[in-house]
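To start, one record:
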Amino acid sequence: MMILAQLCLIGGLLFLLVQRDRTLLTYFQQEEYDGTRFLGAWKNVRLYDVKATLATVIAVTTGALVGDGWPVTLLLAGAYAALAYFERAHRYKKALVMTERASRIFRLTLGAVGLLSILVLLHPLWAVVVLQAAPLVMIGVNRLLQPFQQRINARFEAQAREKLERLNPVRIGITGSFGKTTVKHMLAEILAASGPVYFSRGSINTILGHTRHIRQRLQWSHRYFVAEMGAYGIGSIKRLCDFVHPRYGIVTAVGDAHMERFGSIEAVAQAKSELASEVCGAGGTIVLNAELLKHAPFQRVRDQFGKQVITVGFEDADVTIEHQELEGGSWFITLHSEMPQLDGIAYELPLLGDHNVMNSALAVVLAVVIDPGITDQIPFFTRAISQVPHRLQKVGAPGAALVLDDAYNSNELGFLSAVSAMSKLADQRGGRRILVTPGIAELGLEHDRVHDRLGVFCAKNCDQIYVVNPDRIRSFVNAARASKAEIIEVATFADARAEIAKDLHEKDVVLYENDLPDLLEERRLL
């Protein structure tokens, strides 16, 4: 009977290991298969095993006391199976995508820990060792597969390069600490007046991401190719430029987003300026937010390339912006410039947020530089610009509260702009101003200072503030409490939605600001 119980124990443990490997792989994928960062998530999210370990220790202790422990062994096998079942029911905001790479890591990790699980025949406590070792095994498997994965990536990248050169669309690069995805969507919609535009949906901004989309989606009919470019360190944009070879470009901003990766604002500016240097060095034109010239790398590009650099700003710029907010958060914008083709362009923008004034102006200026023939059509295309999903997107229905979805915002300026827009709309509707936020991620040493400023601002412009995972942004909570705003601390966005639904009125405005990934919002008890 004991042999049967042990076989059941191995079966239950394998069932748990299958689910546990899927759980771990989900977070490993969110950390972009970076072993060091994954170990940080293992600690912060609590991806180490607790429940099965505790069950095993209790079972071993009980078995030692009762002597013939096969009933205890069967109960332990059932406990493993039950834990796997309930773990499987967990829902992620960013679910696992079982790509070929993920599938290889999963199969090899499961094979390795599966073989180790046989050791429970020697003693049940080996199950604890196997469960706790699973994250390390996954990291090791990924490292073993790295040369193989690099060869696969290189082959796909070469195919994408060849296709891009063969189809040869006009290539445009867009980067910035924030705003680049929104500007990309705006430019693509405006430039459609000149011809078919290819651009990656969402936030695809790496060589591998562009490689996949070029191979699968770029067509002969596309006249323009717009590439969003993300920076993960000095040289990232340079490598993307070597891949895309952009003729035109836009740099939206330099800010404190992702400061954990760069360490200083000067390093961020250096990284983002690589697009300007590469575009201008190839004889092209770059459009910059005029504020960027206060950073030495951009000023050097301006000094070197002169008229190839066009600045856009509210004053002291090659193109200046005059704007007026219309009822409901839309904008009427006029551009002025000594360059005749860019002077007097007037258009309406039906998007919330004053930060979108600059975003739209950057897109309009580059579109006209690329094809001056579409100038007269600009007002028709900007008026129909669609809301970018999860970027201050209006979600509502007649007779219901207005919801503003700004889940993909990750910077201080956008945060302030979104709260300001929410406050104005609530005043117009006569309802409450309700904010739900977990704060901003990857601020490094600026984390507390930025969140303190945000807390002070939100305290003045909100009636209720739901703080998600408040322990992560205690400086925000403390600053926001110094006001009449009601502060409600919740564990997750789901908890906030449930609480808000209990007392939500038709005239209220709810802003969901920067929905962080599972890695930063939750803590597990595996």
